[in-house]
Amino acid sequence: MHFTSEQRLDGGVLEREFTLGEIPGILWTPASAPASASASAPEPSAPAPLILLGHPPLGLRKMYPRLVGRAQQAAADGFATATIELPGSGDRPRLPAAEQARADLRRAMEAGEPVSDGIVDALILPLVEQAVPEWQAALDALLTLPEIGGPVGYSGGVISIGIRLAVVEPRISAGVLFAGSFVPRAMYEEARQVTIPLHVLLQWDDEGNDRQAALDLFDAFSSKEKSLHAHLGGHTGVPQFAGDAAAQFFTRHLK
User: Fold this and answer.
1) Which helix (H) or strand (E) holds 82?
2) Whole-prediction pTM
């Protein structure tokens, strides 16, 4: 991990861009966290728990305003947060198969046709296969920093990436998942292996999401503690108080 820039945001939050090999990422740490040798900061205190910020494959530059808002809210609660660029997004090399699947998806939706399992599999499964090991490598590097402690949470979507991480990564203790993306049928079987506490957000009128499929996925999770928070409105209409409830969930499970 190589830090390439840093700046102080409102509230003293330290934002640092980094690269992990050729993968760009961003780390946000609260003002109260101990500092790395490269960063000027207030007197150190205990290392901060970490939340990994998931996001759709639209590129970090486009997603930045939403990500930094989530990071600042988390920092106010004493959490560090980090994110990485997904495969095929931003300035990373395109994934031809995924590009073709995305074009097929657009054509099906514009024609009012059902989205086939083949399209969903081609769009999501290769992304999961490549992204999850990259998230794990980022976690390896982040947990070596003196300002980052544990436990670790995962927040956001693509929901299939969150499912896979919850299954294969024992360092993740709790997850906030956004039920707003297509889910391959194979991921339902993986969902049955998920046992960490879950807080799942669902937009009831999400124009691009199959509501029943989201409910079936929630039912498949084997977590002893799981809660589904459904709100009226479309894909981008998540109310502010939904974020507040998710923050309270992480405070219960990561502190």
Assistant:
1) strand 80-84
2) 0.92
Could you tell me which CATH class the domain 2-92+132-254 is placed in?
A: alpha beta
Q: How many CA atoms lie within 13 A of 229 on its CB side?
A: 17
Give 227-245 pLDDT, tens digit per residue. 999 998 887 778 888 889 9
Sort 17 into a burial class: Cβ within 10 Å, 0-12 / 13-18 / 19+: middle
**Parallel/antiparallel/unpaired status of strands 23-29 and 80-84:** antiparallel
- In tens, the pLDDT along 132-180 reads 999 999 999 999 999 999 899 999 889 999 999 999 999 999 999 998 8
Q: Which residues of 180-192 are buried (b: 16+ CB within 10 A; e: fewer)?
A: bbbbbeebbebbe
Give the count of beta carbons closer than 10 Å to the beta carbon of residue 7.
9
Ramachandran angles phi, psi of 12, nearest 5°: 80, 10
User: What single string gives the DSSP state of each residue in 204-249?
Assistant: TT-TTS-HHHHHHHHHH---SSEEEEEESS-TT---HHHHHHHHHH
